[in-house]
Amino acid sequence: MKFSTSTTLLFIATAATATMKTTMAQKEDRALATLAEKWNIADPAFAYDGLDFTFDYPVSNFIDQGLAYYEVYDSGCKEGGNLVTTGFTLSPLVDVIAGSVTDDAAFAIDGKTAQVPIAVTANDITSNTDVYSETNTAGSMGASIVFCVRFGLNTPGDSPVEVNFLESVVTLSVDLSSGFSIDDINVTPKDQLINTAAQAYTVGGYMCQPGTDTPVVDAATTLSQGSLITVCIKPADGIKMRSVDSFE
């Protein structure tokens, strides 16, 4: 990205939307959090009260409101199962607190928590054969409920991309001999196929009015050597830019 006249290369005096003071020594000294750490999801803390269940997912303080979501599937989870539509009450996700920490010195990999609240509806669950099956044996009446909770993190913007997810398979052993009560609960992480991907993002640069991000109307005007100009640098939608490390 170059801004020059036909005869000489101009130097940049100011930048309205980016700081260009990062030096190579500073880059080497600071301990940058990796993308994997920023989008990390830890195993949930699981609790229940009767037929009401909560899953508390620790995430980093880089994660902002609106990025987390959850879905409930049968035992096959998303890749090999079906969305659950009967037998559960899926309450809205309790989102993380607002704000995204971009300062590496204040970064915490488990700095926030999102909560998934789910309840089993006893009157309806028996009709959902995808998750419910009876396990009656001689002298004992029981049932098994197996479902999968998928918690994920998406990028912001109008066309979000899932960055990370965690699937947990929940198995409930139900005692039917005296009503509908939970005998045993087992929560295990589903084996994941790890996929990696790389995405390149670009920034746009344009001449702008000093102190603003308003483009210069006639940017083609000939400039002389030593002219004071302002260049605005804008990342793609949904991308946060910390600094400009080099400029040509």
Mean pLDDT: 78
Discrete helix count: 4
Low-confidence stretches: 1-31, 193-197
- Overall shape: it is elongated
User: Structural class of the helix and strand makeup?
Assistant: mainly beta
Order of H and E elements: EHHEEEHEEHEEEEEE
Beta content: 25-35%
Query: How does the major sheet shape up?
Result: 5 strands, antiparallel
- How many DSSP-defined strands? 12
Helical amount among residues, as a percent range? under 10%
Gyration radius from CA atoms, angstroms: 26 Å
Head-to-tail CA distance between termini: 6 Å
What does the oligomeric state look like here? single chain
Layout of strands and helices, then pairs:
Elements: E1 14-15, H1 24-29, H2 35-38, E2 45-49, E3 52-59, E4 68-73, H3 77-80, E5 88-90, E6 112-120, H4 122-125, E7 132-134, E8 142-154, E9 162-175, E10 181-189, E11 203-207, E12 230-235
Parallel strand pairs: 1-12
Antiparallel strand pairs: 2-3, 3-6, 4-8, 5-6, 7-8, 8-9, 9-10, 11-12
